[in-house]
Amino acid sequence: SQTIHQWPATLVQPVGSPLSLECTVEGTSNPNLYWYRQAAGRGLQLLFYSVGIGQISSEVPQNLSASRPQDRQFILSSKKLLLSDSGFYLCAWMFGQHEQYFGPGTRLTVT
Amino acid sequence: QKEVEQDPGPLSVPEGAIVSLNCTYSNSAFQYFMWYRQYSRKGPELLMYTYSSGNKEDGRFTAQVDKSSKYISLFIRDSQPSDSATYLCAMALRSNDYKLSFGAGTTVTVRA
Question: Which of A7, A20, A31, B16 is deepest in the core (most CB within 10 A)?
Answer without folding.
Answer: A31
